[in-house]
Amino acid sequence: MTETYDAVIAGAGPAGGQAARDLAARGYDVVVLETEGEEEFPSRSNKSTAGTFPSTMSDFNIPDEVVMNFTDEVVLESPNHYYARHQPGAVLEFADYKRWLVEDSRDDGAEYIFDARVSKPIVEGGEPVGVRYNGDEEVYGEVIIDATGPSAPLAKALDVVELKRERQAIGIEFEMEGVDIDAGGYADLTDAMMLRLDHDLAPGGYSWIFHTGGDTAKVGVCYIQSEAHHENAKDGFSIDDYLSYWEEKDPRLQDATRIEGEQHRGSAHIQLPGQMSTDSFMAIGDTVPTVDPLWGEGIDKCMRSGRAAAAVADRVLTHSGRDTSASEMAIYDQLWHERVAPKVKTRLFMTELLYRASNERYDDLMDDLSRMSADDLTEANQGNKLELAKMLRVGDAKLVFDTLKDWYTR
């Protein structure tokens, strides 16, 4: 007998797990298909720095038990300066956090099928009605949700999301011990999350140290394979080489050792979103870009996309005729732009400017940030064009012009 659910979700990450939590809590029959085996989950998908802020913790009732360290500050570094801001936050143990999402949704009745490699949607009458996995296994649902991250097999098969590989972000992170958290000449990173803008260490991207308590920290590097990366990259260097180079160069890391088994890798696509839904279908989480220019916060955006998807599924499934037409599902696209990533075009443009700037401009940026009020800085990070303009200098004219030219001819 073929099983049919109210919702079929591919992927048990932050977006898929949150969508399952919300739908199961509302009494819907939900099944989540996850590629990894349950005993190892999450192993290959344990790839996030997992820094977040109190609003996310409270909005989604994330328990303290999955927190490695509560932090008091965020720090931005340039090659020669830094900017520190009081901002309470939390560094999550990402594996524990993802397992909590599974168990919390299971408590409300969500079903999980592990070792389930999703291959393609089942389409009848031109509309997706289910998902095929592990070759010939099938599961059917009224609503299909792709939360599989960059692979997005369902979204691509349905021509919903076109992922452009030329703007892929890749990153690597190790949990380390023996880190000198309060080294002379640097900001005190005790109970802090630090992001460093420095093309020598991460051309066209950033590196980070997130304090996880004592002398331990999450240490990583990420860059976008874009013009800025190609202009500043070292010949023959891979993402692993950059992390090793940083360990050798930075006195805070020279006596640090990598903790065995605590290596995380990840990738994402940085591009403006297009269509994210069609008949009976939504693409959520990493299948669409979610970016905060200065602070990141991918977990928050993924969970909010999962919540928006659950709200839309609830709406269409409670409709008198269970209306899962494309016009009804498109409410997800609207919610994404309004609640998940408002002003996304401005914020992505700001991100592009940030990663194209020179190391010298990064030093000046630290001074610019120090002169801004906390409220103005928050507004700029959220895409307020006026506050963004206040951060620009006369010498930035060519940078802005070149970015605009590429932005509109890409």
Automatic annotation (TrEMBL):
<feature type="domain" description="Digeranylgeranylglycerophospholipid reductase catalytic">
    <location>
        <begin position="191"/>
        <end position="243"/>
    </location>
</feature>
<protein>
    <submittedName>
        <fullName>Digeranylgeranylglycerophospholipid reductase</fullName>
    </submittedName>
</protein>
<dbReference type="InterPro" id="IPR054884">
    <property type="entry name" value="Dggglyphlred_Halo"/>
</dbReference>
<dbReference type="GO" id="GO:0008654">
    <property type="term" value="P:phospholipid biosynthetic process"/>
</dbReference>
<keyword id="KW-0443">Lipid metabolism</keyword>
<keyword id="KW-0444">Lipid biosynthesis</keyword>
<keyword id="KW-0274">FAD</keyword>
<keyword id="KW-0594">Phospholipid biosynthesis</keyword>
<dbReference type="InterPro" id="IPR050407">
    <property type="entry name" value="Geranylgeranyl_reductase"/>
</dbReference>
<keyword id="KW-0560">Oxidoreductase</keyword>
<dbReference type="InterPro" id="IPR036188">
    <property type="entry name" value="FAD/NAD-bd_sf"/>
</dbReference>
<dbReference type="GO" id="GO:0016491">
    <property type="term" value="F:oxidoreductase activity"/>
</dbReference>
<dbReference type="Pfam" id="PF22578">
    <property type="entry name" value="GGR_cat"/>
</dbReference>
<keyword id="KW-0285">Flavoprotein</keyword>
<keyword id="KW-1208">Phospholipid metabolism</keyword>
<dbReference type="InterPro" id="IPR054715">
    <property type="entry name" value="GGR_cat"/>
</dbReference>
